[in-house]
From TrEMBL:
<feature type="repeat" description="PPR">
    <location>
        <begin position="86"/>
        <end position="120"/>
    </location>
</feature>
<feature type="repeat" description="PPR">
    <location>
        <begin position="262"/>
        <end position="296"/>
    </location>
</feature>
<feature type="repeat" description="PPR">
    <location>
        <begin position="227"/>
        <end position="261"/>
    </location>
</feature>
<feature type="repeat" description="PPR">
    <location>
        <begin position="192"/>
        <end position="226"/>
    </location>
</feature>
<feature type="repeat" description="PPR">
    <location>
        <begin position="157"/>
        <end position="191"/>
    </location>
</feature>
<dbReference type="Pfam" id="PF13041">
    <property type="entry name" value="PPR_2"/>
</dbReference>
<dbReference type="InterPro" id="IPR051240">
    <property type="entry name" value="Mito_RNA-Proc/Resp"/>
</dbReference>
<feature type="repeat" description="PPR">
    <location>
        <begin position="297"/>
        <end position="331"/>
    </location>
</feature>
<dbReference type="InterPro" id="IPR011990">
    <property type="entry name" value="TPR-like_helical_dom_sf"/>
</dbReference>
<comment type="similarity">
    <text>Belongs to the PPR family. P subfamily.</text>
</comment>
<keyword id="KW-0677">Repeat</keyword>
<dbReference type="GO" id="GO:0003729">
    <property type="term" value="F:mRNA binding"/>
</dbReference>
<protein>
    <recommendedName>
        <fullName>Pentacotripeptide-repeat region of PRORP domain-containing protein</fullName>
    </recommendedName>
</protein>
<dbReference type="Pfam" id="PF01535">
    <property type="entry name" value="PPR"/>
</dbReference>
<dbReference type="InterPro" id="IPR002885">
    <property type="entry name" value="PPR_rpt"/>
</dbReference>
Length: 395
Protein backbone atom coordinates (compact mmCIF):
# COMPACT_ATOMS: atom_id res chain seq x y z
CA UNK A 1 0.00 0.00 0.00
CA UNK A 2 2.76 2.41 0.92
CA UNK A 3 4.58 1.63 -2.35
CA UNK A 4 1.45 2.60 -4.26
CA UNK A 5 1.21 5.82 -2.24
CA UNK A 6 4.82 6.65 -3.12
CA UNK A 7 4.10 6.14 -6.81
CA UNK A 8 1.05 8.40 -6.54
CA UNK A 9 3.20 11.13 -5.03
CA UNK A 10 5.75 10.95 -7.86
CA UNK A 11 3.35 10.58 -10.80
CA UNK A 12 2.19 14.14 -11.40
CA UNK A 13 -0.17 13.03 -14.16
CA UNK A 14 -2.49 11.59 -11.53
CA UNK A 15 -4.48 13.69 -9.07
CA UNK A 16 -5.74 11.25 -6.40
CA UNK A 17 -9.08 11.90 -4.73
CA UNK A 18 -9.30 12.54 -1.01
CA UNK A 19 -11.23 9.31 -0.39
CA UNK A 20 -8.02 7.34 -1.04
CA UNK A 21 -6.30 9.05 1.88
CA UNK A 22 -9.38 8.68 4.08
CA UNK A 23 -9.22 4.93 3.53
CA UNK A 24 -5.47 4.75 4.21
CA UNK A 25 -5.92 6.72 7.42
CA UNK A 26 -8.64 4.26 8.43
CA UNK A 27 -6.26 1.33 7.79
CA UNK A 28 -3.54 2.97 9.88
CA UNK A 29 -6.08 3.40 12.68
CA UNK A 30 -7.02 -0.26 12.60
CA UNK A 31 -3.32 -1.16 12.81
CA UNK A 32 -2.80 1.42 15.61
CA UNK A 33 -0.10 3.18 13.59
CA UNK A 34 -1.01 6.68 14.69
CA UNK A 35 2.37 8.22 13.81
CA UNK A 36 2.06 7.09 10.19
CA UNK A 37 -1.47 8.43 10.11
CA UNK A 38 -0.26 11.85 11.29
CA UNK A 39 2.59 11.80 8.77
CA UNK A 40 0.31 10.92 5.85
CA UNK A 41 -2.18 13.60 6.83
CA UNK A 42 0.59 16.22 6.74
CA UNK A 43 1.74 14.95 3.33
CA UNK A 44 -1.66 14.98 1.59
CA UNK A 45 -0.96 18.37 -0.13
CA UNK A 46 2.18 16.82 -1.67
CA UNK A 47 -0.16 14.54 -3.61
CA UNK A 48 -1.83 17.60 -5.18
CA UNK A 49 -4.93 16.92 -3.11
CA UNK A 50 -6.71 19.41 -0.87
CA UNK A 51 -7.62 18.36 2.66
CA UNK A 52 -11.23 18.80 3.72
CA UNK A 53 -13.26 17.90 6.79
CA UNK A 54 -13.43 14.30 5.51
CA UNK A 55 -9.69 13.64 5.86
CA UNK A 56 -9.65 15.48 9.19
CA UNK A 57 -12.41 13.20 10.46
CA UNK A 58 -10.56 10.14 9.15
CA UNK A 59 -7.45 11.22 11.03
CA UNK A 60 -9.41 11.85 14.22
CA UNK A 61 -10.99 8.43 13.95
CA UNK A 62 -7.59 6.84 13.31
CA UNK A 63 -6.19 8.48 16.44
CA UNK A 64 -9.28 7.37 18.38
CA UNK A 65 -8.70 3.75 17.34
CA UNK A 66 -5.13 4.10 18.61
CA UNK A 67 -6.42 5.68 21.86
CA UNK A 68 -4.30 8.79 21.29
CA UNK A 69 -6.70 11.25 22.90
CA UNK A 70 -4.16 14.07 23.45
CA UNK A 71 -3.18 14.00 19.77
CA UNK A 72 -6.88 14.16 18.86
CA UNK A 73 -7.21 17.38 20.83
CA UNK A 74 -4.20 18.92 19.05
CA UNK A 75 -5.59 18.01 15.63
CA UNK A 76 -8.99 19.43 16.50
CA UNK A 77 -7.53 22.72 17.74
CA UNK A 78 -5.69 23.19 14.43
CA UNK A 79 -8.60 22.05 12.30
CA UNK A 80 -10.40 25.33 11.76
CA UNK A 81 -7.42 26.69 9.79
CA UNK A 82 -8.39 24.31 7.01
CA UNK A 83 -11.95 23.06 7.49
CA UNK A 84 -15.13 23.62 9.46
CA UNK A 85 -16.03 20.81 11.92
CA UNK A 86 -19.22 18.93 11.10
CA UNK A 87 -21.45 16.55 13.08
CA UNK A 88 -19.13 13.63 12.29
CA UNK A 89 -16.19 15.55 13.80
CA UNK A 90 -18.04 16.15 17.04
CA UNK A 91 -19.37 12.60 17.16
CA UNK A 92 -15.82 11.22 17.07
CA UNK A 93 -14.61 13.69 19.71
CA UNK A 94 -17.58 13.04 21.99
CA UNK A 95 -17.05 9.30 21.67
CA UNK A 96 -13.38 9.72 22.59
CA UNK A 97 -14.31 11.75 25.69
CA UNK A 98 -16.84 9.12 26.76
CA UNK A 99 -14.36 6.28 26.22
CA UNK A 100 -11.72 8.07 28.29
CA UNK A 101 -14.20 8.85 31.07
CA UNK A 102 -14.24 12.64 30.45
CA UNK A 103 -18.03 13.06 30.47
CA UNK A 104 -17.86 16.76 31.34
CA UNK A 105 -15.76 17.40 28.23
CA UNK A 106 -18.22 15.39 26.18
CA UNK A 107 -21.07 17.62 27.36
CA UNK A 108 -19.01 20.73 26.59
CA UNK A 109 -18.40 19.50 23.04
CA UNK A 110 -22.13 18.83 22.68
CA UNK A 111 -22.93 22.39 23.79
CA UNK A 112 -20.17 23.78 21.55
CA UNK A 113 -21.45 22.09 18.40
CA UNK A 114 -24.90 23.55 18.94
CA UNK A 115 -23.51 27.01 19.64
CA UNK A 116 -21.59 26.82 16.34
CA UNK A 117 -24.71 25.88 14.43
CA UNK A 118 -23.73 22.24 13.88
CA UNK A 119 -26.90 20.17 14.21
CA UNK A 120 -26.47 16.98 16.29
CA UNK A 121 -27.77 13.79 14.71
CA UNK A 122 -29.11 10.56 16.19
CA UNK A 123 -25.57 9.18 16.51
CA UNK A 124 -24.51 12.22 18.54
CA UNK A 125 -27.27 11.66 21.05
CA UNK A 126 -26.75 7.91 21.11
CA UNK A 127 -23.01 8.26 21.75
CA UNK A 128 -23.44 10.79 24.55
CA UNK A 129 -26.30 8.88 26.16
CA UNK A 130 -24.28 5.66 26.06
CA UNK A 131 -21.36 7.43 27.77
CA UNK A 132 -23.65 8.84 30.45
CA UNK A 133 -25.16 5.41 31.08
CA UNK A 134 -21.75 3.77 31.37
CA UNK A 135 -20.83 6.51 33.85
CA UNK A 136 -24.05 5.70 35.75
CA UNK A 137 -25.37 9.21 35.04
CA UNK A 138 -28.60 7.71 33.78
CA UNK A 139 -30.85 10.56 34.91
CA UNK A 140 -28.83 12.93 32.71
CA UNK A 141 -29.14 10.47 29.84
CA UNK A 142 -32.90 10.38 30.40
CA UNK A 143 -33.13 14.18 30.18
CA UNK A 144 -31.04 14.12 27.00
CA UNK A 145 -33.40 11.54 25.52
CA UNK A 146 -36.32 13.89 26.19
CA UNK A 147 -34.54 16.75 24.34
CA UNK A 148 -33.61 14.39 21.54
CA UNK A 149 -37.25 13.54 20.86
CA UNK A 150 -38.86 16.89 21.70
CA UNK A 151 -36.38 19.33 20.15
CA UNK A 152 -34.84 17.34 17.30
CA UNK A 153 -37.42 14.69 16.49
CA UNK A 154 -34.98 11.79 16.75
CA UNK A 155 -36.11 8.47 18.12
CA UNK A 156 -33.40 6.62 20.11
CA UNK A 157 -32.06 3.48 18.48
CA UNK A 158 -32.83 0.11 20.04
CA UNK A 159 -29.26 -0.24 21.34
CA UNK A 160 -29.60 3.15 23.07
CA UNK A 161 -32.76 1.99 24.80
CA UNK A 162 -30.99 -1.20 25.90
CA UNK A 163 -28.03 0.73 27.28
CA UNK A 164 -30.35 3.07 29.21
CA UNK A 165 -32.37 0.17 30.64
CA UNK A 166 -29.17 -1.52 31.75
CA UNK A 167 -27.94 1.71 33.37
CA UNK A 168 -31.26 2.35 35.11
CA UNK A 169 -31.21 -1.20 36.47
CA UNK A 170 -27.73 -0.64 37.89
CA UNK A 171 -28.89 2.35 39.91
CA UNK A 172 -32.14 0.66 40.94
CA UNK A 173 -34.52 2.84 38.88
CA UNK A 174 -36.82 -0.03 38.00
CA UNK A 175 -39.88 2.10 37.25
CA UNK A 176 -38.07 4.12 34.59
CA UNK A 177 -36.42 0.99 33.19
CA UNK A 178 -39.80 -0.72 32.79
CA UNK A 179 -41.21 2.43 31.20
CA UNK A 180 -38.47 2.38 28.58
CA UNK A 181 -39.16 -1.29 27.91
CA UNK A 182 -42.80 -0.44 27.22
CA UNK A 183 -41.67 2.42 24.96
CA UNK A 184 -39.66 -0.06 22.92
CA UNK A 185 -42.75 -2.24 22.54
CA UNK A 186 -44.85 0.79 21.58
CA UNK A 187 -42.26 1.80 18.96
CA UNK A 188 -42.28 -1.73 17.50
CA UNK A 189 -38.68 -2.33 18.56
CA UNK A 190 -37.66 -5.93 19.05
CA UNK A 191 -36.84 -6.77 22.65
CA UNK A 192 -33.96 -9.16 23.21
CA UNK A 193 -32.69 -11.29 26.07
CA UNK A 194 -30.24 -8.61 27.30
CA UNK A 195 -33.13 -6.29 28.19
CA UNK A 196 -34.97 -8.99 30.07
CA UNK A 197 -31.83 -10.31 31.78
CA UNK A 198 -31.10 -6.85 33.22
CA UNK A 199 -34.68 -6.36 34.38
CA UNK A 200 -35.04 -9.85 35.87
CA UNK A 201 -31.72 -9.58 37.72
CA UNK A 202 -32.68 -6.24 39.27
CA UNK A 203 -36.11 -7.52 40.34
CA UNK A 204 -34.45 -10.40 42.17
CA UNK A 205 -32.00 -7.98 43.82
CA UNK A 206 -34.78 -5.85 45.28
CA UNK A 207 -36.76 -8.90 46.43
CA UNK A 208 -39.46 -8.82 43.75
CA UNK A 209 -39.21 -12.51 42.89
CA UNK A 210 -42.74 -12.87 41.48
CA UNK A 211 -42.25 -9.91 39.13
CA UNK A 212 -38.97 -11.44 37.95
CA UNK A 213 -40.76 -14.70 37.12
CA UNK A 214 -43.51 -12.75 35.32
CA UNK A 215 -40.91 -11.02 33.15
CA UNK A 216 -39.30 -14.36 32.36
CA UNK A 217 -42.68 -15.73 31.24
CA UNK A 218 -43.41 -12.54 29.28
CA UNK A 219 -40.42 -13.15 27.02
CA UNK A 220 -42.28 -15.84 25.13
CA UNK A 221 -45.17 -13.44 24.42
CA UNK A 222 -42.77 -11.08 22.64
CA UNK A 223 -41.07 -13.85 20.71
CA UNK A 224 -37.87 -13.43 22.70
CA UNK A 225 -36.05 -16.64 23.58
CA UNK A 226 -34.08 -16.68 26.86
CA UNK A 227 -30.36 -17.24 26.37
CA UNK A 228 -27.80 -18.75 28.74
CA UNK A 229 -27.34 -15.42 30.54
CA UNK A 230 -31.09 -15.12 31.19
CA UNK A 231 -31.28 -18.66 32.57
CA UNK A 232 -28.22 -18.02 34.74
CA UNK A 233 -29.85 -14.89 36.15
CA UNK A 234 -32.96 -16.89 37.03
CA UNK A 235 -30.95 -19.69 38.65
CA UNK A 236 -28.85 -17.22 40.63
CA UNK A 237 -31.98 -15.38 41.77
CA UNK A 238 -33.66 -18.53 43.06
CA UNK A 239 -30.42 -19.69 44.70
CA UNK A 240 -30.15 -16.40 46.61
CA UNK A 241 -33.58 -16.94 48.14
CA UNK A 242 -32.68 -20.63 48.76
CA UNK A 243 -35.42 -21.91 46.46
CA UNK A 244 -33.34 -24.72 44.98
CA UNK A 245 -36.34 -26.62 43.63
CA UNK A 246 -37.16 -23.75 41.26
CA UNK A 247 -33.49 -23.34 40.42
CA UNK A 248 -33.37 -27.01 39.40
CA UNK A 249 -36.53 -26.58 37.31
CA UNK A 250 -34.91 -23.70 35.44
CA UNK A 251 -31.85 -25.89 34.89
CA UNK A 252 -34.05 -28.60 33.39
CA UNK A 253 -35.91 -26.03 31.32
CA UNK A 254 -32.61 -24.99 29.75
CA UNK A 255 -32.10 -28.52 28.46
CA UNK A 256 -35.68 -28.77 27.21
CA UNK A 257 -35.33 -25.51 25.25
CA UNK A 258 -31.96 -26.56 23.81
CA UNK A 259 -30.07 -23.81 25.62
CA UNK A 260 -26.54 -24.87 26.50
CA UNK A 261 -25.52 -24.70 30.15
CA UNK A 262 -22.18 -23.03 30.78
CA UNK A 263 -19.67 -23.20 33.62
CA UNK A 264 -21.26 -20.17 35.29
CA UNK A 265 -24.60 -22.03 35.42
CA UNK A 266 -23.06 -24.86 37.40
CA UNK A 267 -20.76 -22.71 39.54
CA UNK A 268 -23.71 -20.64 40.72
CA UNK A 269 -25.57 -23.73 41.91
CA UNK A 270 -22.50 -25.50 43.33
CA UNK A 271 -21.48 -22.43 45.34
CA UNK A 272 -24.94 -21.86 46.81
CA UNK A 273 -25.49 -25.55 47.60
CA UNK A 274 -22.18 -25.71 49.46
CA UNK A 275 -23.11 -22.65 51.52
CA UNK A 276 -26.30 -24.43 52.58
CA UNK A 277 -24.44 -27.61 53.51
CA UNK A 278 -25.83 -29.57 50.55
CA UNK A 279 -22.44 -31.07 49.67
CA UNK A 280 -23.79 -34.28 48.17
CA UNK A 281 -25.99 -32.35 45.72
CA UNK A 282 -23.12 -30.01 44.89
CA UNK A 283 -20.84 -32.96 44.18
CA UNK A 284 -23.49 -34.61 41.96
CA UNK A 285 -23.79 -31.40 39.92
CA UNK A 286 -20.00 -31.14 39.68
CA UNK A 287 -19.79 -34.70 38.33
CA UNK A 288 -22.65 -33.99 35.88
CA UNK A 289 -20.76 -31.15 34.22
CA UNK A 290 -18.59 -33.24 31.83
CA UNK A 291 -21.64 -35.32 30.82
CA UNK A 292 -23.35 -32.09 29.77
CA UNK A 293 -20.35 -31.01 27.73
CA UNK A 294 -19.26 -28.42 30.30
CA UNK A 295 -15.71 -28.61 31.62
CA UNK A 296 -15.25 -27.62 35.31
CA UNK A 297 -12.87 -24.68 35.71
CA UNK A 298 -10.71 -23.57 38.62
CA UNK A 299 -13.72 -21.80 40.19
CA UNK A 300 -15.76 -25.02 40.08
CA UNK A 301 -13.03 -26.94 41.90
CA UNK A 302 -12.43 -24.21 44.45
CA UNK A 303 -16.14 -23.82 45.25
CA UNK A 304 -16.62 -27.53 45.85
CA UNK A 305 -13.33 -27.92 47.72
CA UNK A 306 -14.10 -24.93 49.97
CA UNK A 307 -17.57 -26.27 50.67
CA UNK A 308 -16.36 -29.76 51.55
CA UNK A 309 -13.61 -28.38 53.81
CA UNK A 310 -16.02 -26.03 55.56
CA UNK A 311 -18.45 -28.89 56.12
CA UNK A 312 -15.84 -31.26 57.55
CA UNK A 313 -16.09 -33.61 54.56
CA UNK A 314 -12.35 -34.22 54.68
CA UNK A 315 -12.15 -37.47 52.73
CA UNK A 316 -14.23 -36.09 49.85
CA UNK A 317 -12.25 -32.84 49.97
CA UNK A 318 -8.98 -34.78 49.67
CA UNK A 319 -10.24 -36.60 46.57
CA UNK A 320 -11.26 -33.29 44.97
CA UNK A 321 -7.91 -31.77 45.96
CA UNK A 322 -6.03 -34.62 44.27
CA UNK A 323 -8.01 -34.14 41.05
CA UNK A 324 -7.65 -30.38 41.30
CA UNK A 325 -3.85 -30.49 41.61
CA UNK A 326 -3.67 -33.03 38.76
CA UNK A 327 -5.54 -30.54 36.54
CA UNK A 328 -3.03 -27.84 37.42
CA UNK A 329 -5.41 -25.83 39.63
CA UNK A 330 -4.37 -24.44 43.02
CA UNK A 331 -6.77 -24.09 45.99
CA UNK A 332 -6.98 -21.00 48.16
CA UNK A 333 -4.52 -21.07 51.07
CA UNK A 334 -7.33 -20.48 53.58
CA UNK A 335 -9.16 -23.60 52.39
CA UNK A 336 -5.98 -25.68 52.54
CA UNK A 337 -5.35 -24.46 56.10
CA UNK A 338 -8.93 -25.43 57.07
CA UNK A 339 -8.43 -28.95 55.69
CA UNK A 340 -5.05 -29.46 57.38
CA UNK A 341 -6.30 -28.06 60.72
CA UNK A 342 -9.40 -30.24 60.55
CA UNK A 343 -7.40 -33.39 59.88
CA UNK A 344 -5.07 -32.55 62.78
CA UNK A 345 -7.99 -32.04 65.15
CA UNK A 346 -9.56 -35.35 64.11
CA UNK A 347 -6.22 -37.11 64.43
CA UNK A 348 -6.38 -38.40 60.84
CA UNK A 349 -2.61 -38.60 60.37
CA UNK A 350 -2.66 -40.92 57.37
CA UNK A 351 -5.01 -38.62 55.46
CA UNK A 352 -2.97 -35.60 56.59
CA UNK A 353 0.22 -37.03 55.11
CA UNK A 354 -1.67 -37.79 51.88
CA UNK A 355 -2.93 -34.19 51.67
CA UNK A 356 0.57 -32.79 52.26
CA UNK A 357 2.00 -35.04 49.56
CA UNK A 358 -0.72 -33.99 47.11
CA UNK A 359 -0.05 -30.31 47.80
CA UNK A 360 3.70 -30.85 47.47
CA UNK A 361 3.24 -32.48 44.05
CA UNK A 362 1.51 -29.37 42.78
CA UNK A 363 3.95 -27.02 44.48
CA UNK A 364 0.88 -25.70 46.29
CA UNK A 365 2.07 -26.06 49.88
CA UNK A 366 3.03 -22.98 51.84
CA UNK A 367 4.78 -22.29 55.12
CA UNK A 368 1.50 -21.67 56.91
CA UNK A 369 0.24 -25.16 56.04
CA UNK A 370 3.38 -26.76 57.50
CA UNK A 371 3.21 -24.66 60.64
CA UNK A 372 -0.41 -25.69 61.26
CA UNK A 373 0.36 -29.37 60.75
CA UNK A 374 3.55 -29.48 62.83
CA UNK A 375 2.23 -27.35 65.69
CA UNK A 376 -0.99 -29.38 65.97
CA UNK A 377 0.89 -32.67 66.04
CA UNK A 378 3.46 -31.33 68.51
CA UNK A 379 0.69 -30.12 70.85
CA UNK A 380 -0.70 -33.64 70.96
CA UNK A 381 2.76 -34.94 72.05
CA UNK A 382 3.00 -37.09 68.96
CA UNK A 383 6.67 -36.33 68.46
CA UNK A 384 7.20 -39.29 66.18
CA UNK A 385 4.41 -38.05 63.90
CA UNK A 386 5.88 -34.55 63.98
CA UNK A 387 9.20 -36.05 62.99
CA UNK A 388 7.56 -37.73 60.02
CA UNK A 389 6.11 -34.41 58.93
CA UNK A 390 9.51 -32.77 59.19
CA UNK A 391 11.01 -35.59 57.15
CA UNK A 392 8.35 -35.00 54.51
CA UNK A 393 9.15 -31.28 54.55
CA UNK A 394 12.84 -32.02 53.90
CA UNK A 395 11.92 -34.38 51.06
Amino acid sequence: MEEVLQQLKQDTRVVPEEIIFCNVLKFYGRARLHERALQLFDEIPQYRCQRTVRSFNSLLNSLFKSEKFDEMKEVYLSMEKYARPDACTYNILIKACCESGCLDNARKLFDEMRSKGVKPNALTFGTLMRGLCLGLKVNEAFKLKTDMVRLYGFLPAAKTYKMMIKGLCKIGELTLALMLKEEMVGNNMKLDSTVYSSLINTHFKVGRQEDAVALFEEMDLHGCAPDTVTYNVMINGFCKVKDFDKAYRILENMAEKGCKRDVFTYNTLIGRLCREGKWSEAKDLFEDMPRQGCKPDVVSYRLLFDGLCGGGQFKEATLILDEMIFKGYVPFSASTHNLVAGLCQKGKMKLLLLVLNILAKGNAIDQGTWLIAISKVYQDDKLSSASKLLDSLVL
